Amino acid sequence: MTLLPILALAVGTFAFRYGGVVLRDRITFSEQTKRLLSTAAVVLLFALVATAALAKGQSFAGWALPAGVLVAGLLAWRKAPFVVVVVAAALTTALLRLAGLP
User: Fold this and answer.
1) In b/e form, how buried is each residue of 9-29, taking b as 16+ CB within 10 angstroms?
2) 60, 67, 76, 92: which one has the fewest Cβ atoms less than 10 Å from its Cβ?
3) Which Pfam families match (predicted)?
4) What's the whole-model pTM score?
């Protein structure tokens, strides 16, 4: 029963990726469209981060998790190594939860 949806997703993913390679030289975008697609990617990524940082299931995740994400964002913006970003975010969240902040 679950094999059919998995196969459908696999075929769709392959077709989507293969289509990009085949159509790369046949389709051209204007500069305005390129800027719009770039902005759309940033907005989509921000929405994903905001949803993951602020919600846990159907409710608010508490203040410790968004604080950890904020620390990670600041360190990434300052070009800290990835391991430092992840460890600092985890430590921030853990210490705030240990202090009693939900």
Assistant:
1) eeeeeeeeeeeeeeeeeeeee
2) 60
3) AzlD (PF05437)
4) 0.63
